[in-house]
Amino acid sequence: SGPGPQRRAALAAAGGLGLGALWSKLMGNRASAEEAGAAATGEPRVSESGYNVTPLPRSEVKELASSLPRLSQDVLLREATERPFSGQTADKSAQHNTKAKGTWISAVSNVPLFSSDAKFESGTGWPSFYAPVDEQHVTLKTDRSIPFMTRTEVLDARSGTHLGHVFDDGPAPTGMRYCLNAAALKFVPEGQELPPQK
Length: 198
Hints:
Elements: H1 5-13, H2 19-26, H3 33-41, H4 58-65, H5 70-78, E1 102-106, E2 112-115, E3 119-120, E4 128-129, E5 138-146, E6 149-156, E7 162-167, E8 177-180, E9 185-189
Antiparallel strand pairs: 1-2, 1-9, 3-4, 4-8, 5-6, 6-7, 7-8
């Protein structure tokens, strides 16, 4: 069974969220036939907001991550978790609890992931958002790394690197809480141009 009518309406009303795609991702379904076809032919996958989200080769991801701080590498490549209330972005541009306006981008691919407009104080000690900038910029995956606990992992769609987890206890309009590691991100203040994606 799917989400109730109120949750479906909230998800549909959330800017940038496609209900069917989000629900499929949350339920662990595979890529759409269109995405699978594009991957098979080698065509780039471009998000609705115009970013290339074709997965990068793992060797390139490791090379791009090699210049980042050790904690960022551990989080991104080895699914580590930074200590709560201590997070700092990979480029040291923001703390986990910044209230500054801007865009949170992937520390590896530079793809924009979350906006400060969707950020909220969750009390968890990690940056939390109720929706991504574009749902095609993140990939959701079932995570069973903790015995007897199933979670949904959030990955950067372009690099496949670990960002954090998503939970269904967030605020309106989506009811979702994307709980992320600041070390997996960079912050671009409002009014500053986003760097080119990798």
